[in-house]
Amino acid sequence: MLKAVLRDSLVYGLASILSKGLAIFLLPLYTRVLSPSDYGAYDLLITLGVLANLIVALEISQGLARLWSDTPEKGARQRLASTSLWFTVLMYGAFLAISLSAAPQLNSWILGDDRYLDAFQLGVGFIAVNGIYYLLLNQFRWELHSKAYATVSVVYALLNLLLAAIFCLLMDLGLTGVMLSQLIAAFIACWLSLSLLRRTFIFALDMQQLRDMLRFSTPLVPAGLAVFISLYINRLAINHFGSLEDVGHFGISSRIASLASLLIIGIQAALTPLVYQHYREPHAPRQIARLLNWFMATALVGCLFLALFSRELLMLFTTPKFMAGAALVGVLAPALLMSQMYIFAPGIAIAKKTHWQLWVTMLGATASVAGNWLLVPLWGVWGAAMATLLSSLIFLLFWLSLSQRLYPIPYAWRSIVPAVLMFIACTLLGIELNKLGLTLQLLLPIKSLILLFLLGVVIICGLLPITDLRALFMQLQLRFNKRTQE
After folding, report:
1. CA-closest candidate to residue 368, choices 398, 340, 337, 389
2. 157, 192 contact by CB (below 8 A)
3. Distance from C-alpha of 203 to C-alpha of 201, rounded to nearest angstrom
4. 99, 106 contact by CB (below 8 A)
5. What is the average pLDDT across 323-346?
6. What is the pLDDT of residue 3?
7. 171 three-state secondary structure
8. What radius of gyration do the chain's Cα atoms show?
């Protein structure tokens, strides 16, 4: 299982790096054609999209994922996948019709400015098409077609970048152009996905399979809503206690911090379907623990890089008007990763104890609401960042505790805890360095040394053993020699 996870993680990870890398080039474009308030409105529309993806189709994609490996017969799999697709299309069609009919009222309530009405209408169109696109994209994962997944992801990102340049730079459509480019890109990506999956889907809606999928997935909806509250209530709190401009600063910091998710997206895409297939094997728990060690080593170094060089990254990808939230990146990057690290504790999903998932995510959501309610009025965007970090930590700790009862995994806590503590110390040191007013020529070498120091720490702690590094290097060298000889 470990080799399959690593192989598919590499493909998914490279695809994510390419697509996210292309998406990061949108930041210089967006921050030049949008004001902080416009970007705040854009961030709220994306937040609305995340909420819709959780509730509109009742998380049926998760039900499909759980039943897929238990449905080996080809015809039954076709009906299963097709049922999930047509149910999703019907649900998003209803969402689109209702949203467009009430667009003026919804726009006034969510964005609070009538000049964003056209962008809002295009935004709900994008949300509907994008929800269908994500279902199709995940189908490549369930069928273990990682290369097709990568191809579609990169094409979508390229289209988004190209269309945004046309509508925003050449036609100067502002936020309307941003949403129009995303709508068209999502529509083309849906068409491409359906073309590649033409042997998977048929015109079928099996009511028994639909009930089976919804029986598994529907309890996940409240849990998904709780996760949404944990991660996105901060935008609503900032908009309520502050302004759209504050939301824009927080949103830009979140985009930079989300680069940390590149470290887990590949593993996340590959690990879940393979765990469902191999969890009964006796060596699977130890392999998951080993994979977590490797992930923690790269995650700690990656998050520290973002924390140390957040100002430089914002200088590179944005304009000076968006620099206010640079220091938030060091808090948001680990918070975003912790909210997704539940994949290394699959006991709840394996045991189908989705009600436990609901209670854990509700606990995280409660912590987030309370944190934002108390801290945002006091500290503004800093309060929102700290509330996000605390709620993610509470969620992860309780998830790990419950999952271990159902599917124990031998985590290497004696290696993980010291490395995490040293990461915190290095992050705080980086914050203090930025306050000293040193020149860029002096700051960059010092920050690089801090980063190298943490890399040494994770190796000494055993999260990234020398033997694994040597084996990986030898494997890459053998592949290189083989290709050279060919």
Report:
1. 389
2. no
3. 7
4. yes
5. 89
6. 52
7. coil
8. 22
C-alpha to C-alpha distance for 172 and 153, rounded to whole angstroms: 26
| Side-chain half-sphere CA neighbours of 65 within 13 A | 25
CB distance 388 to 328 below 8 Å = no
| Tens-place pLDDT, residues 104-124 | 999 998 888 888 999 999 999
How far, in Å, are 44, 238, 331 from residue 379 at the CA level?
A: 21, 10, 14
Measured CA to CA, the distance from residue 124 to residue 128 in angstroms comes to: 6
Q: What token pair was written down for 420?
A: 């995490």
- Considering the chain, what is the average pLDDT of its residues? 85
- 214 vs 354: CA distance, rounded Å: 12
- Provide the 10 A C-beta neighbour count for residue 410: 11
> What is the Cα–Cα distance from 99 to 125, expressed in whole angstroms?
9
Backbone phi, psi, residue 411, to 5°: -65, 145
Which of these ranges, 80-89, 159-168, 214-223, has the smallest mean pLDDT?
214-223
What is the Cα–Cα distance from 327 to 309, expressed in whole angstroms?
10
How much is the pTM? 0.73
Question: Residue 356: in which H helix or E strand, if any?
Answer: helix 354-379
Kindly give the residue spans of alpha helices, DSSP state H, lying in 56-173.
60-68, 74-101, 103-110, 117-142, 146-164
The answer to whether the beta carbons of residues 192 and 136 sit under 8 Å apart is no
Residue boundaries of the structural domains of the chain: 227-486
Distance from C-alpha of 463 to C-alpha of 413, rounded to nearest angstrom? 10
| 8 Å CB contact between 330 and 307 | yes
Q: What is the pLDDT of residue 243?
A: 85
| The residue to which tokens 């073309």 are assigned | 195
